[in-house]
Amino acid sequence: MRVLIIEDEKKAAAYLQKGFAENGFTADTAASGDDGLHLARTENYDLIILDIMLPGRDGWEVLEELRKEGSEVPVIYLSARDAVHDRVRGLELGADDYLVKPFAFSELLARARTILRRGPSRQPERLRADDLEMDLVGHKARREGRPIDLTAKEFILLSLLLRRKGEVLSRTLIAEQVWGINFDSDTNIVDVAIRRLRRKVDDPFERKLIHTVRGAGYVLEAK
Which range of residues forms the domain containing residue 55? Predict the structure, then answer.
């Protein structure tokens, strides 16, 4: 799942990005309303975390523009403005929630997951292929009932492969979805990550699930 964090305070944005990444999300950041609106228009996000006081367009304008254009992406306002009329305004503009700073990240994460579960494009809580199973909420992976110890990036990578099992995913697509970057074709970051993931997911087991499609990318499927 991809999250866009529109926040001009660098430390706050880095804190949020790290927190979401550690919990299985790919998180992009934007430091102004204009940049955030551009990303929201040109990329596909499952959730937007939106500050109000921003350079350029403020958070009110960003959400208003998105809703006018028909975007239904869930939005959580995260702001130091705690007046009742501010909260009401945010909800009336089409925000799905409003959380006042300072906040506990655990609460923000819980609210984000609740919104994603109840939305029209509800995300599955468990993914499965053959004897491999992932619990996205509990952040656990098992194969043949045995736990697999994954890093945060490995968890995101494996969940991407599982969500789109049977589909060949290019290295560029994987890099964009897992690392949130466009990368040079000579970079081997994806190949290295796949090798490490195979050591944990495939090497200890007879049946192999992660396959290389020469010249195209990678696919997860039971053969």
Answer: 2-118
